Amino acid sequence: MIASGIHIAAPGLAAALGNVARLSRTLLCLAGVAALVVALRFGVYEYFHGEGQVLAHLRDALHL
After folding, report:
1. Fewest beta carbons within 10 Å, which of 4, 11, 39, 60?
2. How much is the pLDDT for 30?
3. How far is 21 from 32, CA to CA, in rounded Å?
4. Do the beta carbons of residue 54 and residue 47 sit within 8 Å?
5. pLDDT in the model for residue 3
6. Nearest to residue 35, comparing CAs of 23, 27, 46?
7. Does pTM surpass 0.85?
8. What is the distance between the alpha carbons of residues 59 and 39, in angstroms, rounded to a whole number?
9. Cβ contacts of residue 14 below 8 Å, gap of 6+?
């Protein structure tokens, strides 16, 4: 009989890889949220103290 998937010999290894993948997704999501918060904060500051172009560019980048 031919196996249809990858066989991982150690069940502990599969759990460890799952934890690493979950941690990686969480860190990438948090980094994205942090980047968005920084861009919005800078955009609001620039809106009130500058020309207001940053929020317009951010809106265009997000297709809103």
Report:
1. 4
2. 97
3. 17
4. yes
5. 56
6. 27
7. no
8. 11
9. 8
Contact in structure between 17 and 23 (CB atoms under 8 Å): no
Q: Which residue has the tokens 């942090």?
A: 34
Domain residue limits, the chain: 29-64
Q: What angle do CA 33, 30, 35 make, to 5 degrees?
A: 35
Give per-residue pLDDT as tens, 11-63: 777 788 889 999 999 999 999 999 989 988 888 888 788 777 877 787 888 77
HSE-up (13 A, CA, CB side) for residue 49: 6
* CA 23 – CA 28 distance, rounded (Å): 9
C-alpha distances in Å from residue 15, one per residue of 18, 19, 25: 5, 6, 15
